[in-house]
From TrEMBL:
UniProt-recorded Gene Ontology molecular function terms: efflux transmembrane transporter activity
GO CC annotations, alphabetized: efflux pump complex
Domain (Multidrug resistance protein MdtA-like C-terminal permuted SH3): residue spans on this chain: 329-391
InterPro entries noted in UniProt: MdtA-like_b-barrel (IPR058626), MdtA-like_BSH (IPR058625), MdtA-like_C (IPR058627), MdtA-like_HH (IPR058624), RND_pump_MFP (IPR006143)
Pfam families in the cross-refs: Beta-barrel_RND, BSH_RND, HH_MFP_RND, RND-MFP_C
Keywords associated with the record: Cell inner membrane, Cell membrane, Membrane, Transmembrane, Transmembrane helix, Transport
Protein's UniProt name: Multidrug resistance protein MdtA
Gene: mdtA_1
Domain (Multidrug resistance protein MdtA-like alpha-helical hairpin): residue spans on this chain: 136-205
Residue span, Multidrug resistance protein MdtA-like barrel-sandwich hybrid domain: 97-238
Organism per entry: Polaromonas vacuolata
Annotated compartments: Cell membrane
SUPFAM superfamilies, per database record: HlyD-like secretion proteins (SSF111369)
Organism phylogeny: Bacteria, Pseudomonadati, Pseudomonadota, Betaproteobacteria, Burkholderiales
UniProt similarity note: Belongs to the membrane fusion protein (MFP) (TC 8.A.1) family.
Length: 459
């Protein structure tokens, strides 16, 4: 195979002009595109830099350019706050009695109205008394007969005793007569008991109220045969005044209650409806159970209420607020000021001069419906955010109701400045800032001249 010397064709230098009619190389096209893109990116960055908001923060730690949030504030103050135990309780009557007849017979009268308030000892109903009157007469006659025999035996014994002293009768006869007197005395005692029982049964034909309270629905009508073995009874009487509420308290609060009980300190208790909006009755703590319920870790307690207006009804569910003591000189803020985060409770404290907020970790204490005590982390006189805190962070700028609107700086002022620059650029394109919407860009070769951005990129 014959090797031929071939001279490679000379390629034009990159700086030499391409002959007319020859298409540009692929590398030259890519290079031009990259340069144009880099130039456009540079112009975009310069435009953003010149049009960005004021870089000076409103305060140390503030959000650059972030608009201020309108918030509500409150001042932490020293106040007394009650220490209470909230619990769910059940209204329990002091007495609830099912009235049953104690003798059997026909019900002849009912002397009460359903729902009526009755007094203890008041007549409610009567049972046919005739058989009991006859039984009383029989017992009374038996007692009188035996009493006469006893009186006769005593006279005979007295005579025998006199004859024995004269040695006119045997001692045996005297002793026998004395034994007869003893026997008849026992018989008379039995007769007296039987007579008393008959009289008691006759009294039982008059059914009276055992306690004062409210009568329920009638459970039997006139003419029915009733007896002491009836399970339903005649009627149910429930004592409404006074009345108690049984509720449960956590075992951790038992020590406080025991201390007050030992000191004989009265603890006020309020019964509220299910919505906690209305106080039904105000009473006092009565007693505490003697053991902890192991299933719930609570102890049953009882509060007593006069219930003169009968606002509490048996078996009604109510909310109990038990005032254990009062915490004085506590740092108190509205409950809306307390926030919860991953690290615990905190509040936003207002920096009055810079109109910024700071996060302050705190420890909560006793709370009421509107106020809460802060045990650590806050002093009286400091102002905390109560409204609009959801939009805040550490160092955020805020506006208080009544503050005069700001005219400069970042935020609203910065927006006005940018709008003014755009209006000025539209009126005088030669003086428009670099990178404005009018499409002008600055060049390094002629700092004072403005050329269209498209021409600058093309060069």
């Amino acid at each position: 195979m014959t090797l031929q010397n071939q001279t490679p064709e000379a390629k034009p230098h990159a700086s030499e002009p391409v002959p007319s009619g020859q298409p540009p190389s692929r590398r030259s096209a890519i290079t031009g595109t990259v340069v144009a893109l880099l130039l456009l990116l540079g112009l975009s960055g310069l435009t953003w830099y010149l049009l960005k908001p004021d870089a000076t923060p409103a305060a140390a730690g503030g959000f650059r350019g972030a608009p201020a949030s309108t918030v509500g504030v409150a001042t932490a103050e020293l106040a007394s706050i009650p220490i209470v135990i909230d619990a769910l309780g059940t209204v329990t009557p002091q007495a609830s009695v099912k009235v049953r007849p104690q003798v059997s017979g026909t019900l002849t009268k009912i002397l009460f109205q359903e729902g009526q308030m009755v007094k203890a000892g008041q007549l409610l109903a009567t049972i046919d008394p005739r058989q009991f009157e006859l039984a009383l007469m029989q017992a009374s006659g038996q007692r009188q007969r035996d009493q006469a025999q006893l009186d006769s035996a005593k006279v005979t014994l007295k005579r025998f005793t006199t004859l024995l002293a004269q040695d006119s009768i045997a001692r045996q006869e005297t002793d026998t007569q004395a034994a007869l007197v003893k026997q008849l005395e026992g018989t008379v005692a039995i007769d007296m008991a039987a007579e008393g029982l008959a009289k008691l049964n006759l009294d039982y034909t008059r059914v009276v109220a055992p306690v004062s309270g409210r009568v329920g629905l009638r459970l039997v009508d006139v003419g029915n045969l009733v007896s002491s073995s009836d399970t339903n009874g005649l009627v149910l009487i429930t004592q409404l005044s006074p009345i108690s509420v049984v509720f449960s308290v956590p075992q951790d609060r038992v020590a406080e209650l025991q201390q007050n009980i030992s000191a004989k300190q009265r603890m006020s208790a309020s019964a509220l409806d299910r919505s906690r909006a209305t106080v039904l009755e105000v009473g006092s703590f009565a007693t505490l159970d003697n053991q902890v319920d192991v299933t719930t870790g609570t102890v049953k307690a009882k509060a007593l209420f006069a219930n003169d207006k009968q606002a509490l009804f048996p078996n009604q569910f109510v909310n109990i607020k038990l005032l254990v003591s009062t915490l004085t000189d506590a740092v108190v803020v509205p409950v809306t000021a307390l926030r919860q985060g991953a690290n615990g409770d905190f509040v936003y404290v207002l920096n009055a001069e810079s109109r910024t907020v700071s996060i302050r970790p705190v420890k909560r204490g006793q709370a009421t419906v509107e106020k809460i005590a802060i045990t650590e982390g806050l002093k009286a006189g400091e102002r905390v955010i109560t409204e609009g805190a959801d939009r805040l962070k550490e160092g955020a700028r805020v506006v208080l109701p009544g503050d005069a609107p700001r005219t400069g700086g970042a935020g609203a002022g910065g927006d006005k400045s940018k709008r003014a620059n755009r209006d000025k650029a539209s009126a005088n394109p030669a003086s428009a800032p670099v990178g404005t919407a009018d499409g002008y860009a600055d060049t390094a070769s002629a700092p004072g001249r403005k050329r269209p951005a498209s021409q600058a990129a093309g060069s």
